[in-house]
Design a protein that fits this description.
245 residues, Beta-Lactamase, Arc Repressor Mutant, subunit A, 17% strand
């Protein structure tokens, strides 16, 4: 009797992805590996902490304007993602897999800007729910192929989710922890002021903060200055000193 093929992922690839979890190369490694097992044109992985916007953990694409699409998704469209229903139905300590086709998306702007314009026919979503947060990996495909097996990409997603969980740690990312502490210690700050200050304390530049939050670099400086004025300080080191007192 013939044996059933068992899907294996190169252990060396898995080690490389886990080691690169904190590096910019993580997204490129994930896309390269995905293209080795299926027709994938873009990968996008994120963490979603309860009550917050998704935080990008990996992005790599062969399609133009990927950064702009991710900003739109994290700021607005994640609420309309059909995969969000699958996420919400899963208890902590469990995972899910979901194929989302462009025609399923009812929100017109979301479908147009994130699927029709880049010509994505579908995406394969894999996720894991931890207490207080979600980890998710998405594989976008321009070619619709119902014969495409999801199991190879699912095995790859497991490696990616492991790497992301290691990066996130039990309490979430440094930025998330800083935002939470800023909320507790300085409740007078607005949400945007907390987001900017947390990323500043984590070492991000004004340009990278602007790209992540989808605002102008000058606006980042404005939010930072307003926060400092509220707290009567003039620099990040003073904010850190007050935060750790």
């Amino acid at each position: 009797m013939a044996s059933t093929p068992v899907l294996l992922i190169d252990p060396a690839l898995g080690c490389s992805m886990i080691e690169a979890a904190d590096a910019p190369a993580f997204g490129a490694l994930l896309l390269q590996a995905a293209q080795g097992v299926g027709a994938v044109d873009e990968v996008f992985a994120f963490r979603l902490v309860d009550g917050a916007q998704p935080e990008t953990m990996a992005l790599c694409s062969e399609v133009a304007e990927a950064d702009a699409r991710v900003r739109l998704y994290t700021r607005r469209f994640h609420r309309f993602d059909p995969a969000s229903c699958a996420r919400q139905a899963v208890p902590a300590g469990s995972g899910f897999a979901r194929t989302v086709r462009a025609g399923e998306i009812e929100q017109l702007d979301y479908r147009n800007l994130c699927f029709e314009r880049p010509r994505f026919a579908s995406k394969l979503c894999f996720g894991w729910r931890q207490p207080g947060q979600w980890l998710a990996v998405n594989f976008y495909r321009q070619r619709a192929d119902d014969r495409c097996e999801t199991s190879p990409l699912g095995a790859l997603a497991n490696i990616a989710l492991t790497a992301m969980a290691r990066r996130a740690g039990p309490s979430g990312s440094l930025v998330v922890r800083l935002e939470r502490k800023l909320m507790r210690v300085f409740p007078q700050l607005t949400r945007r002021e907390r987001e900017v200050c947390a990323r500043t304390l984590a070492g991000a530049t004004s340009q990278s903060i602007a790209a992540e939050l989808g605002i102008a670099a000058a606006t980042v400086l404005t939010y930072r200055q307003r926060a400092y004025e509220r707290l009567e300080i003039s620099q990040a080191s003073a904010l850190l000193d007050r935060l750790v007192d």
